[in-house]
Amino acid sequence: MDPAFWQGRRLWLTGHTGFKGSWLTLWLQALGAEVHGFSHDVTPLYEEAGVADGLAGDVRGDVRSRSELRAAVVRARPDVVFHLAAQALVRTGFERPVETFTVNTSGTAKVLEALRDHGQPRAVVVVTSDKCYRNDGAGRRFTEDDALGGDDQYAASKAGQEHVAAAFRGLGLPVATVRAGNVLGGGDTAPGRLVADVMRAAEAGEPLQVRAPGAVRPWQHVLCPLEGYLAVAERLASDPATTAPSWNLGPDERDEGPVGALVEALRQRWPGGLMVRAAPPGAAAGEAPVLRLDSTRAREELGWAPRWDLPRALDETVAWHVRRREGADMRAETLRQIAAYGADGTVSG
Fold first, then answer.
1. Do β-strands 216-221 and 256-258 pair in parallel, antiparallel, or remain unpaired?
2. 3-state SS assignment for residue 321
3. Which of 35, 44, 191, 297 has the CA that lies 20 to 30 A from 210?
């Protein structure tokens, strides 16, 4: 990532108020970018970290509305776009399948249509998911060229996003997709996400129910894939013709592991510990037993690799929540972690 690339650059972020969106917006502000945001809801992290401070534009809207998207694109006139707005929860996909498809798949099509018809961006990065692959449960690491699929609504909607992005790329829009593993970090409050549930239970002093302790996932701090998103955007803006259409952004092999081990690591770090108990039978329905990513392309073509390993990611996540409990300035704390990540030139692994 080249910090000079972002200084003064006009950006448009959909989903800028979410977990990843809040961290990315603060990072881009710190780099001196002119950030315009478009989101439907506001999260506690967005408010606690004062993400709105310094935004050039902060619009509430719906990615299912073509008129709202058109107006936002015309207002922002972005040079670079990050599309993060999504229904981002697997469990919600079971409960509200139509909403999941209309927001994730149709919404992405409408975002890209607005950019094609009313904007002239040099780079559009569409954030999908590592769950976009057809997972047969064999446990091998997926590469970007593996088949897309998805047996549940959320995964299928993310595969649909990939197809939509490919179709608009065929229409000449400079778009690439990024597929990250499971991310963690301070301020995630989404129900059903493991680390968010752990922190919520720990802060409340309540027992945590663990749905699938044996399920293996690729774990990394949220700043790790976000740096990859920035690197992909830079590459796409400078050389769209030779930039790969999709990118895996996963951790080192040693940071792939079972849910139960991650919960235990967090339990040991949280002051006062954490009570853990098994979830009722059937609670893990729809959860893939193994999910791994091969990120060779990003490592070889972008020079990207996670700067923080999993122990450091867990340390920083717990530290963020402890500081919030102490009443700290959470914008300052979040920016401190971003600066620490950027200053850590020693890439893990």
1. antiparallel
2. helix
3. 44
Does residue 349 belong to any structural domain of this protein?
A: no
DSSP 298: I
Residue 347 has pLDDT above 50, yes or no: no
pLDDT in tens, 196-247: 999 999 888 888 888 788 899 999 999 999 999 999 999 999 999 999 999 9
Domain CATH number, residue 42: 3.40.50.720
> Is 168 part of any domain?
yes
* Beta strands in the chain, from DSSP E residues, in sequence order: 10-14, 34-39, 57-60, 80-83, 123-127, 141-142, 175-180, 182-184, 208-210, 216-221, 246-249, 256-258, 276-278, 292-293
User: For tokens 């970290």, what's the residue?
Assistant: 49
- What is the C-alpha R_g of the chain? 19
**Amino acid occupying residue 210:** V
The total of other beta-carbon atoms located within 10 Å of residue 344's CB is 13
* % residues pLDDT > 70 (the chain): 96
Sequence-ordered list of residues with C-beta below 8 angstroms from that of 281, at least 6 positions apart, any chain? none
Task: Report the largest interatomic distance among the alpha carbons of the chain, rounded to a whole angstrom.
Answer: 56
| Sign of torsion over alpha carbons 81, 65, 23, 143 | negative
Number of structural domains, the chain?
Answer: 1
- Please name which of 37, 135, 143, 45 lies closest in space to residue 81, comparing C-alpha atoms: 37
Q: Check if the beta carbon of residue 13 is closer than 8 Å to that of residue 84.
A: yes
The reported pLDDT for the residue numbered 113 is 98
**With bands split at pLDDT 50, 70 and 90, how would you rate the model's confidence at 348?**
very low
In sequence order, what DSSP letters do the residues of 135-173 get, joined into one string?
A: --S--PEEPTTSPB--SSHHHHHHHHHHHHHHHHHHTT-
- Expressed in angstroms, the distance from the first to the final Cα of the chain is 18
For 118, the domain range is: 3-341
